[in-house]
Amino acid sequence: MSSFWLKRSRSISSVLLQNLRTKTGTLDSSQFLNSIQSSQNHTVLPSGLSSFLLKALKNPSGSQYQQFLHRNSKGGFRFFSTQAVTEPSTADGLTVEGIVASQWTILDESESDWKSHAAAIAQSILVIKKRLQWNKLMVRLNFLSAELNKPNLWDDPVHAGRISREHGSLMGKMKEVKAFEQELLEHIDMIKLAREENDTELESESLKALLTMRRISNEKELEALLSGEQDPCPCYIEVQAGAGGTESMDWAAMVMEMYKSWAQQRGYKVTVVDEMPGEMAGIKRATIKVEGEYAFGYAKSEVGVHRLVRISPFDSGKRRHTSFAAVAVIPIMGDGSTRVQINESDLRIERYRAGGPGGQHANTTDSAVRIVHIPTGVTVTCQNERSQHQNKASAMAVLQSRLDQLEMARQAQMNAQHTQSLTDISWGNQIRTYVLHPYRMVKDLRTNYEVSDPDSVLEGDLDGFILSYLSASLDKDENEG
Amino acid sequence: MKLSLIRTYSYYTFPNFHKPKTQSPSLCARLTRPVCSTSLKPKTPLFLRPPEYSATLSDLKRWQDWAKTLSSSIGSSFLDSDNGPDPSLLCRELNWLIEDSLEDHSVIPQLGIQDNSKNVRLKVDIAELYSLWKQRIEGRKPFQYIVGCEHWRDLVLSVEEGVFIPRPETELLVDLASDAVSNNEELRQGLWVDLGTGSGAIAIGIGRILGTRGRVIATDLNPLAASVAAFNVQRYSLQDVIEIRQGSWFEPLKDIEEKLSGVISNPPYIPSEDIPGLQAEVGRHEPRLALDGGFDGMDDLLYLSNCTALLLKPGGFFAFETNGEKQCKFLVDYLENDNAGSFCNMKIVSDFAGIPRFVTGFHQ
């Protein structure tokens, strides 16, 4: 089924692209793809015809399917014409999957063996596709193409803008991989040709080109880890102390310091937005803003509860304590993307920690502001700016991002793309344990990635954890999909 | 508009201002209060001073540790005695003082490192930093006077001892004016006044929301405030929009023949009997002129209301800040009865702490 679907949807998308914004006769493409989409959303199918179509799709070898193809071959419904679906291949029919399947030995880069290079590149391409969630991408692209084909699309310009932007970015992403695939196959063709013709110069040139591709493919594999729509965005990182008083507040402060150093080491700009100090030590909670390329893409791996085991510096009995801190990561979407409209009337804006008669009576540099979004109950405070106006602006920006994230999560659930619950996205489950005593270790519970030097991790050396989580989570997604 | 440029209380034209020989007698006669001397030249806020000093990071760190310890030592004593600052707020102020004193903010994270002999450029001598923080803690000198500025809305305003420090609550007055002009082009292009402008905060806030033809005249009885306000106006390049005049309330506006589009003021409203019990930062350091509103704190509010009824044009907007619910209600009642028929759409607006703080309305 899956390979069928893959090929089909690819051909559909290519036809759709040629026919952008054209409407065909009895059954146009958007209706067709819509019906697929609506079935995913578990809504009632709009017509008997589309459910028939779906059945046909699910049972491609069935006679109904053949009949359908036949019946429609003259109509506008060209997707199911007998037009061959061409997987890119070399002149003698070798495809990327074919290369991987033939299990050529992958030697060191320095060995001038074209098969070794080709095998390494082909494997990378599969990894990249997997990480990009190629199959889901196809489905999404088809859906977007269908949306773009709708004649009434531009009735809602905001929606239309979002659809066409996403379509453009998906197309770009997929084209890039396709081109890379094509390039590999062309070089193989060249090498084979050169060998037939005994053209050593051409052969060595092509071999060199393959080597370059092999090196680039490693970078591309890494890039593919961060292919989410929000991954390039800046983000907020929030750390909240768990139960347990000073002990946990101290741990929350350590976690926050860890992220500050991590972000600084990556060359990101870090701004403290809000910080609520604990009575004795540490922080009750804090929010920082992290700006720089792919800040959200990396930081999103840190969402969840972080657990610390150590001999407490606050316990005169020197006993072992376990503390928790929860981490949330919120993307800050660009102006280009659609953002939740906030009604001023839905907000309750309060001076935080205000007391006494205020006004001319009081001279204070504390102008902390709390904003409550009444319909959702989302509450944001900001106290680190030097004026109330700026604190309010800062808090509004955090509120906006939180609401955007809620809305995204809601839509994602609706589209059944994610099965994570909203609470998972905002605070999540326990993801990592940091043990300082009786032994020393940091272990990620999701990937089992571990290191034996907690100090370096607490000083911001987090990339190992982040990369292993990113690749593991994408592998998991693909298997589930 | 009949505004004489010479009367403009511009900071840079100041030196010429008290050479009466260069001005026509009639203009001099029109000067409301020609009280100015070079001693009124405003002080430059710390963050705008040139980085003429230097110190090693470890010296700076030593000072910071000393200042932190001093701040912590007060515990909740200020808070308990007069609702003053607590150590965590003082530590935040300390960080801001460091920000304002340093030329290069990127060295701040390195302050945590011990024994750093790296030199940093400072805008103030390190010995002076010790003295400043002593004044903050022991003298309860307002932080804004220590650094010479107050962050207010999206502005950084110069302030100094003798000039009232604008409050966070008052930021809302500008929002109220902004709402009033948002769909009223006539008001947006009109003449507004800010009475008792102090550092010029409200006038500058409003100057930035008015249209191209909108103008603001800001008055203050205190010559030092007038010169600080002029400095702030200059810093935001609003001298073509805002004119500072020194004098009592509407007095410097006598030559204005056109009616006003807006009257905004945060006049002194603290009842005289409350003055002795004020928070030390306020009572010991801020000008009483800007705080004391007479027996029940309503003297100036009532006076301003009466004048506003005469000077505001039909449809014109006013907004006053008050001491709280009691004054708001009293003022609305007064405007409805004693100035019956003058005003409409009167509203009491609360600040973010939920205290009814402002009275707004329109002239009939």
Automatic annotation (TrEMBL), chain A:
<dbReference type="InterPro" id="IPR005139">
    <property type="entry name" value="PCRF"/>
</dbReference>
<comment type="similarity">
    <text>Belongs to the prokaryotic/mitochondrial release factor family.</text>
</comment>
<keyword id="KW-0648">Protein biosynthesis</keyword>
<dbReference type="Pfam" id="PF00472">
    <property type="entry name" value="RF-1"/>
</dbReference>
<dbReference type="Pfam" id="PF03462">
    <property type="entry name" value="PCRF"/>
</dbReference>
<dbReference type="InterPro" id="IPR000352">
    <property type="entry name" value="Pep_chain_release_fac_I"/>
</dbReference>
<protein>
    <recommendedName>
        <fullName>Peptide chain release factor domain-containing protein</fullName>
    </recommendedName>
</protein>
<dbReference type="InterPro" id="IPR004374">
    <property type="entry name" value="PrfB"/>
</dbReference>
<feature type="domain" description="Peptide chain release factor">
    <location>
        <begin position="192"/>
        <end position="302"/>
    </location>
</feature>
<dbReference type="InterPro" id="IPR045853">
    <property type="entry name" value="Pep_chain_release_fac_I_sf"/>
</dbReference>
TrEMBL record, chain B:
<dbReference type="InterPro" id="IPR007848">
    <property type="entry name" value="Small_mtfrase_dom"/>
</dbReference>
<keyword id="KW-0489">Methyltransferase</keyword>
<dbReference type="Pfam" id="PF05175">
    <property type="entry name" value="MTS"/>
</dbReference>
<keyword id="KW-0808">Transferase</keyword>
<dbReference type="InterPro" id="IPR002052">
    <property type="entry name" value="DNA_methylase_N6_adenine_CS"/>
</dbReference>
<feature type="domain" description="Methyltransferase small">
    <location>
        <begin position="185"/>
        <end position="269"/>
    </location>
</feature>
<dbReference type="InterPro" id="IPR004556">
    <property type="entry name" value="HemK-like"/>
</dbReference>
<keyword id="KW-0949">S-adenosyl-L-methionine</keyword>
<dbReference type="InterPro" id="IPR029063">
    <property type="entry name" value="SAM-dependent_MTases_sf"/>
</dbReference>
<protein>
    <recommendedName>
        <fullName>Methyltransferase small domain-containing protein</fullName>
    </recommendedName>
</protein>
<dbReference type="InterPro" id="IPR052663">
    <property type="entry name" value="RF_glutamine_MTase_cyano"/>
</dbReference>
